[in-house]
Amino acid sequence: MARVGVRRETKSVWERRVAVTPDLARDLVAAGHEVLVERSERRVFPDAAYEEAGCALLDDLPPCEVVFGVKEIPDERLLPKAAHLYFAHVIKGQPYNMPMLRHLLSIGATLLDYERITDEKSRRLVFFGRFAGLAGMIDALWTLGQRLEHEGVTGTAFAAMKPSHAYADLAEALAAVKTLGEQIAKEGVPAELQPLVIAVTGGGNVSKGVHEVLAQLPLADVDPEDLATLVSDPEASDRVVYRARFIEQHLVRPKAGGEVVTQEYFDHPERFESDFEQYLPTISVLMNGIYWTPACPRVVRKQDLPLMSRCRVIGDISCDVEGSIEPTMLATEPGDPVFTYDAESDSARMGVAGTAPVINAVDILPAELPRDASEAFASALKPFATAIAGANYAGTLEESGLPVEIQRSCVVWRGELTPDYSYLEEHLAE
Hints:
28% helix
């Protein structure tokens, strides 16, 4: 049986999530594994809960066969020859994490990246994405209230909203959104917002979380093609929130002309250009939840911001710095989450003041709902956890006994890039 480590998160003071909850730790102990947990004062589950589950508490992890974390692990905390599970943020060749990847290789370690635990159709199986969408939409409603107050539109129903982390749990947050919805249905939205159009990009787990929050509001769905007519209609209702869903067919167009073929876009994004500019003047709140790489067209460019005179808030859940939302100049944390883009200095101005939309770009959004997010994540990880702990990390990956879904997530095996991730060599060289 293996020695399994559960590390405390150190990347942010706001990070309270865990991959292994006390309940999942209890399962590992019952399977015969020794589970060692680093003490943490801010982890959402108290140390005592892990002791009750049969774990040993330590200030620092000793050598372990397997280490479970959430966010990137500093070099000095990576254990030689151990298998590490966390969100490594290396598969796009992210420059800021290449030193970490080099260190993993140099110490003969193994990296299993949660982001790449997928089924045979490349669908992610273990993720926090839904909670990023949930927290991102709740935060956007709070941000909208803050921006309206700054503009002198005071006493609105939005002013009562709080950021996600200020609620006890998801249920309390959703109850607050439901109350907001009831007030909108009864009193309407401020005249300055009418009609209130919330645009949502993407169709994955992130957007599912966004729509789960929006479902608490009085919704009226509108096709993107009808937005221009809607915003110019003086009879448009002020008692509903208009929701527009944007998928690839609305976001991009082929450079060579013709129809958008989704699979072609996924395989060859460089063949496409943005087609979203036409919708920007109609949007009140933009929720961005797409997967993006530098080969993809941007959703919003810096030069597009003058078109967004109606837009108060951009909830950039994807949070690729200067990526799909080019004015996202930095990733923020829950304690200081929003900024506006200042074109003159090409920089971010923290807070809600400014002429451009307020951008909420927290890159650890699920950490704002730590208990709910951790329990859902551990539930998704549970079918694989015992096999991960009991795998053979001394031989080849094929002989390890790891489920095939976990083998797909293996970026580094015993100090070597696996064939599926050999393309990272060029990024390491850079």
